[in-house]
Write a structure and sequence with these properties.
With 214 residues, the protein is mainly α. Helix content is 74%, strand content 0%. The chain contains 7 helices and no strands. It is globular. The mean pLDDT is 77.
Length: 214
């Protein structure tokens, strides 16, 4: 029999998720990284290494934001099935978080120092969306994943030609994000109008510009 979690249990779980999200190297993936031993890079120049690390740092912070978004939405979602869907998607986002962190270590670089700020902002947005209604919350997931998918496609093109390991990670992430977006729409998520998506795109540009080097 499954034990119903108390409020204290939930708070401990939430705190553990925050730590695993924000503490470097703390996230643990449930799936192996797509950058397997068979995927090998060609020699990268120092400039190419820094550029690849900048792009992977952006993607890592994007996963920090996704984790906070799902956590915030899960706390305020009204329907149990919606809350469960948020938790399942969040677990796959932890895989992405761990993969990006691992790749940054391989590139001898660091995660963004701005992650706590972006986590807090995304958590607030997620909680607000969930409080408005499950259809808006799910619609926000779909629109967010659509934006993430565009970033991933762009980054796969912009990565150095010889960086096959980062590209393998982003390719699987893009597949997962598209699946999350489709599930959110099928569950009743509202389709956001173009002006709202444009505003979300502007916000994401603020994140990408600041995180590339910091």
């Amino acid at each position: 029999m499954n034990r119903k979690l108390s409020r204290a249990d939930n708070l401990i779980h939430q705190f553990d998720t925050v730590l695993r999200t924000l503490v470097p190297h703390a996230a643990r993936a449930t799936r192996p990284s797509p950058a397997t031993e068979d995927v090998r890079d060609e020699p990268l120049s120092e400039e190419e290494r820094r550029h690849a690390a900048g792009l992977m740092r952006i993607n890592h912070t994007g996963e920090v934001c996704a984790q906070a978004l799902y956590q915030g939405q899960g706390m305020t979602a009204r329907l149990p099935e919606v809350r469960g869907q948020m938790e399942e998607a969040a677990q796959e986002e932890i895989d992405h978080l761990a993969w990006c962190d691992e790749r940054l270590q391989e590139l001898h670089d660091h995660t963004s120092r701005l992650n706590p700020f972006f986590y807090a902002a995304s958590f607030g947005i997620g909680a607000a969306a969930g409080a408005i209604g499950d259809n808006i919350s799910l619609g926000f997931v779909a629109a967010t994943e659509e934006q993430v998918g565009k970033h991933l496609d762009d980054h796969m093109v912009r990565l150095p030609p010889g960086d096959h390991r980062s590209r393998a990670v982003l390719r699987q992430m893009a597949i997962d994000e598209a699946h999350h977006a489709q599930l959110a729409l099928e569950a009743g998520g509202a389709r956001f109008p173009a002006p709202v998506k444009f505003g979300m795109s502007l916000m994401s540009k603020v994140m990408t510009k600041s995180v590339y080097r910091i």
